[in-house]
Amino acid sequence: MLNILGAYYNTGYMNYWDPTYILVIIGAVISLIASAKVKTTFAKYSKVRSKARMTGAEAAKRILNASGIYGVRIERVAGSLTDHYDPRDKVLRLSDAVYGDTSVAAIGVAAHECGHAIQDEKGYAPLVLRSTLVPAANFGSKAAWPLIILGVVMGSLQPLIFIGILMFSISVLFTLVTLPVEFNASRRAIAVLGDTDILNREELKGTEKVLTAAALTYVASAAAAILSLLRLILIFGGRDRD
Any transmembrane segments, and where (predicted)? Predict the structure, then answer.
């Protein structure tokens, strides 16, 4: 969408290659590298069976109970790496590759999602903020582009473009708030896996690598979002003065 908008802008107002395309390229490359890293790391440690022979679902139940949490359901969800914790319904959903698998990778991912449940139980501030931002971020991501495009089509209507950029900024803020939430959940996961002896020290090293790779995808997403926002600002920020 940003590429199309940039092309429209260049055709109508500037007849040379827009150098801000480099920001889109950088963001795409970062995201591709992070995605490839998490997939290869997860695949590698999915082949390493835990000595406890505990499945992801079993590990999740043990972790939650050890943390004094008994009201969270554990369910299977289709897909690969689609694992997530739903704070609204108090449900921890584990993907097919995690729910019934006994690998170090599966247990690590399950523990990470338990980390979110523990955050929810303790009222972890960044998680509360992220949950609060969800409606605004969803609306902002959907409304931003129509507003910006409408502003351009109607003859560079700056107020609409500004509002569109502001809407997009809310979704960028959401990706930034997500970072401490995800990193904290991983730290909690590693700590509780060690405390409960679900994994031994050597297995924990593999789990840390899986969770670190997963965390990089959130960093990449935030970086790509920031670069896209920066490009919008560079393209449209000064047009009211032109």
Answer: 20-38, 147-174, 210-234
Backbone CA torsion sign across 99, 88, 115, 198: negative
Q: Which helix (H) or strand (E) holds 52?
A: none
CA distances from 238 to 1, 21, 143, 156, 235 (A): 21, 17, 22, 11, 7
Name the strand (E) or helix (H) holding 139: helix 125-153
What is the layout of strands, in order, in the sheet containing 91-95? 73-77, 91-95, 84-86
Q: What are the tokens at 57?
A: 């679902």
Token pair in block for residue 60: 């999740």
The whole-model pTM stands at 0.85
Q: Give catalytic residue positions.
A: 113
Residues 6 or more apart in contact with residue 115 via CB below 8 angstroms? 184, 185, 186, 187, 188, 189, 192
Q: What backbone phi and psi angles, to 5 degrees, belong to 237?
A: -60, -35
53 backbone dihedrals φ, ψ, rounded to 5°? 55, 35
pLDDT band at 12 (very low <50, low <70, confident <90, very high): very low
In this predicted model, what pLDDT tens digit does every residue of 107-126 receive, in sequence order?
999 999 999 999 999 999 99
